[in-house]
Amino acid sequence: MKKPTYRLLLTALLALCLAGCAGLTASLVETPNATSSSAAIISTAQPTPNIDRALTLTLWLPPQFDPSSGSLAASMLQNRLEEFTGQHPQVIIHTRIKEESGAGGLLESLKRAQNAAPLALPDVSLIPVGLLPQAAAAGVLHAQERLSSELGSNDWYPFAVALATVDEQRYGLPFVADGLVAAHRTTAISQVPPTWVRLMDTRIALGFAAADPQARFTLLQLMSLPTGANEPAITDRNLLEVFDFYATGQARNVFPFWLTQYQSNEQTWQAFSEGRLPMVTAWTSQVFANRQTEISGAALPTQNGQPFTLVRGWVWGVTTQNPERAALASELIEFLSTPEFLAQYSAAASMLPPRPSSLAAWAPDSNQALASQLVNNARPLPDQETLERWGVALSEAVVAVLKQEMTATDAAESLSGVFVP
Fold first, then answer.
1. What is the pLDDT of residue 165?
2. What is the pLDDT of residue 7?
3. Burial class (CB in 10 A: 0-12, 13-18, 19+), 100
4. Which segments within 22-147 are labelled E, that is strand?
5. What DSSP string runs through 125-169?
6. How many angstroms separate the CA atoms of 246 and 215, rounded?
7. Minimal CB count within 10 Å: which of 26, 61, 243, 357?
8. Nearest 5°: phi and psi at 166?
9. Distance CA 77, CA 79 (A)
10. Nearest-CA neighbor of 253 among 191, 204, 185?
11. Banded pLDDT at 233 (limits 50, 70, 90)
12. Beta strand 173-185 with 309-318: parallel, antiparallel or unpaired?
């Protein structure tokens, strides 16, 4: 009888143990507060999300802004991007380089991705301002209230606000700009004459790309002239004045006929660098990056002597269609647009900053002095489609005048009505 009694006792004890465990389990389930709040604390206390929950922001950039190119400005941009991810540990930033034009260029790639694979669209794109209207019209660029509000502050130059604006809608934040100026060798001419009349008196050649298919130097001269409130941007009267300027310059060797061989600023800058031209139209980026002490920069001559320039620029825009990603993309754009960073980056990149506070932080040298002259007297170049529509006709007329194949009057009349909106 002892063995059965022992077995019964063991079975009873085991049953009591299981019942106690079940009761303990039930008490845990039925007591919600302590256990669930502890789980929440543990969950939120993790410092870094798992890598599979990380968010990748994709940036498309033109080649000259490649953060891995090795230049000082590139290193600054790379460090700034890393600083952003340091503040947002769940974010990974991936950059892709896209040419500004062509079949595989930035705008065409955005259009193709939008139509075929919207999820492949970048979150942020640095868009050349000449393509901004096309990007907005194609729906690949999305205005953000947050960025529009930021651009409404007083710390932006008027030209910078214009860079990011299409049909009164603001589409992002300006990054940097590049303006047309004059470069000269002080050994050949001590300073650039401020007016057309004084330039003619020097009888010293001012090189410009007369055959430029976008006619940027000619557009600068035309757009620096006053027009009436209801007149087009370029009037027949102003055309005649500019072509008279060219005809007089050709006669006095200020604009010799052989300038018609140049089609770009890069070609005229090369001639200037080799000593074949004493004075030349250039970009501020070319002048500011120069380290030769005998080369200096100045505003280009205008009819009335007031400094004026046309600028090309680049604008950070949101190109993702996802609202949540767009919010983070806007935050990144703001982070890349602070006055302190733009001051450092624009100086390193030899570009014009879009913000007064950024230019004020530059070293007080000749570059800052020239930039200060230009930024309050600058306008954006016309967009790419407008340049293509106006430029060829203008450059053909300029070439004809410099080769004495057409009078100033005939040249102006040949373009009558071209610039009416």
1. 98
2. 41
3. middle
4. 55-61, 91-97, 124-128
5. EEEEGGGHHHHHHHT-SB--HHHHHHHTSSSS-HHHHHHTEETTE
6. 13
7. 26
8. -130, 120
9. 5
10. 204
11. confident
12. antiparallel
Spatial distance between the Cα atoms of 195 and 304, rounded to a whole number of angstroms: 6
Q: What is the pLDDT of residues 373-415, one digit of tens each?
A: 999 999 999 999 999 999 999 999 999 999 999 999 999 999 9
Structure tokens at 262: 């140049």
10 Å Cβ neighbour count for 415?
18
Query: Mind listing the domains of the chain with CATH numbers?
Result: 52-171+312-376 (3.40.190.10), 182-308+382-414 (3.40.190.10)
d(CA 202, CA 191): 11
421 pLDDT exceeds 90? no
The mean pLDDT value of the chain amounts to 89
Buried b (16+ CB within 10 A) or exposed e, 142-168: bebeebbebbeeeebbebbebbbbbee
What is the rounded CA–CA span in Å between residue 385 and residue 192?
32
DSSP state for residue 51 in the 8-state scheme? G
Give the number of other CB atoms < 10 A from CB of residue 92. Answer: 13
Look up tokens 């050709």; give the residue: 250
- Determine how β-strand 309-318 pairs with β-strand 279-283: unpaired
Which token pair is 185?
């060798």
The DSSP letter of residue 261 is G
Residue 247's SS3 state is helix
**Chain segment 74-122, per-residue pLDDT in tens:** 999 999 999 999 999 999 999 999 999 988 899 999 999 999 999 899 9
What single string gives the DSSP state of each residue in 354-414? SSHHHHHTS-SSHHHHHHHHHHTTEEEPPPHHHHHHHHHHHHHHHHHHHTTSS-HHHHHHH
Amino acid 39: pLDDT: 28
Per residue in 288-304, pLDDT (tens digit) is 999 999 999 999 999 99
Element (H, E) at 68: none
Q: What is the crossing angle of helices 72-87 and 339-349, to 10°? A: 160
**What is the pLDDT at residue 38?**
27
Which pLDDT belongs to residue 229? 85
